[in-house]
Amino acid sequence: MKRQVFVGLVLAVAATGVLTGCQSAYYGAWEKVGVHKRDIMVDRVEDAREAQQDAQEEFNSALEELQTLLGSDGGDLQRAYEKAADEYESAYDAAEKVRDRVDGVESVATALFEEWQQEIGEISKASLRSSSQKQLRETERNYQQMIRSMRRAESKMDPVLTTMKDNMLFLKHNLNARTVGSIQAEFDSLKQDINGLIKEMNVSIEESNRFIESMKQ
């Protein structure tokens, strides 16, 4: 289930959730049209995965522009700095989007697992109840592995953004070739950190893919 298919419906459902201020109303509105928490969870994991992919591109672009800035000379410095600053802002926005998407995954996961556990208690046949409980535990294990990976990748974004911001502010106050050259060591360290972040995001993306497949089976 992709939200693009239900654009008009999403707006109505979202409005319901906002007006009531209640997550249960939001999920209830979706269920009335046959879209359950399981479907929403898969959709949100896909969104989080896409947000991480976008963030990878933005952080790479920021690194490239900073590298261009380090290689610039007098006349090109201001323009190169402005481009690098813009890319930092884009990377920051992409990181915020990742955080929001991962928070959304956690929110629906909590609702899904609570509902699932409650409904297991309503199954009268022991064999079916046991089978559903086993499936729930397996899904929770897969989810915990995925969400830990997402959070690990997320935790690596802040140090990178902090370093980038420090460098951009430092350069802003004294933009000349000598100042630019003085942050070369910082750039080398930043490059390693961004490469590490991208690798961690790749792991998270793979975990997301596995979880999505397990939920669709």
From TrEMBL:
<feature type="coiled-coil region">
    <location>
        <begin position="38"/>
        <end position="101"/>
    </location>
</feature>
<keyword id="KW-0175">Coiled coil</keyword>
<dbReference type="InterPro" id="IPR021342">
    <property type="entry name" value="DUF2959"/>
</dbReference>
<protein>
    <submittedName>
        <fullName>DUF2959 domain-containing protein</fullName>
    </submittedName>
</protein>
<dbReference type="Pfam" id="PF11172">
    <property type="entry name" value="DUF2959"/>
</dbReference>
